[in-house]
């Protein structure tokens, strides 16, 4: 049965974000590159060398993650004992943990990126860049992004008009004229 209104399939389906579109392709390319590089190294040396490289990367990554976790826990304890907030003592371990996790993933490209992330100058540079990016986003949100969202969170009538009203709290009996314990006056027509 047709209603005379044409609907296209593309208008019914929301658009995919760029991340959801390109992330699977990027992961597939990364996996193919990792496997290709491992086979190239295995062809140039032997399979035992590749196996030892992968085991060494896993062991080194697990040591780094364990050490970063202990350091984060120790800093958190010191900060809480001084009476500070927990967010003060948690800086500096994020990139170290990420580097350790990348070392634990089998592959030589992830190992190289993980080793670079473990270096303190790289951690400081990336930390400053992430901080600037976060500050820019917070300023953009404060300039009108979040305020507009709160303005749009009003209750609207189906015809688009704003419904005016007020909220009345009924904490104790007798606070409002429409208290359910009091008898209501009869309706007159």
UniProtKB/TrEMBL annotation:
Keywords: Membrane, Transmembrane, Transmembrane helix
Spans through the membrane: 21-42, 48-65
One Pfam family from the record: FxsA
KW Transmembrane helix (keyword) present: yes
Region named Disordered: 154-189
Tagged with keyword Acyltransferase: no
PANTHER family associated with the record: UPF0716 PROTEIN FXSA (PTHR35335:SF1)
The protein's name in its UniProt record: FxsA family membrane protein
Naturally occurring in which organism (per UniProt): Streptomyces thermocoprophilus
Lineage, highest ranks first: Bacteria, Bacillati, Actinomycetota, Actinomycetes, Kitasatosporales
Gene symbol of the encoding locus: fxsA
């Amino acid at each position: 049965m047709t209603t005379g209104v044409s609907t296209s399939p593309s208008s019914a389906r929301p658009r995919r974000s760029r991340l959801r579109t390109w992330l699977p392709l990027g992961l597939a390319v990364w996996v193919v590159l990792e496997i290709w590089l491992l086979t190239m190294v295995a062809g140039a040396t032997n399979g035992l060398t590749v196996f030892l490289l992968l085991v060494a990367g896993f062991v080194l990554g697990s040591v780094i993650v364990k050490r970063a976790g202990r350091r984060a826990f120790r800093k958190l304890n010191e900060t809480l004992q001084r009476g500070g907030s927990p967010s003060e003592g948690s800086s500096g371990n994020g990139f170290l943990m990420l580097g350790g996790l990348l070392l634990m993933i089998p592959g030589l490209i992830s190992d190289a990126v993980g080793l670079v992330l473990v270096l303190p100058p790289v951690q400081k540079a990336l930390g400053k860049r992430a901080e600037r990016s976060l500050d820019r986003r917070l300023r953009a949100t404060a300039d009108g992004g979040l305020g507009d969202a709160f303005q749009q969170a009003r209750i609207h009538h189906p015809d688009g008009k704003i419904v005016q009203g007020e909220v009345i709290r009924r904490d104790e009996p007798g606070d409002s004229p429409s208290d359910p314990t009091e008898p209501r006056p009869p309706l007159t027509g």
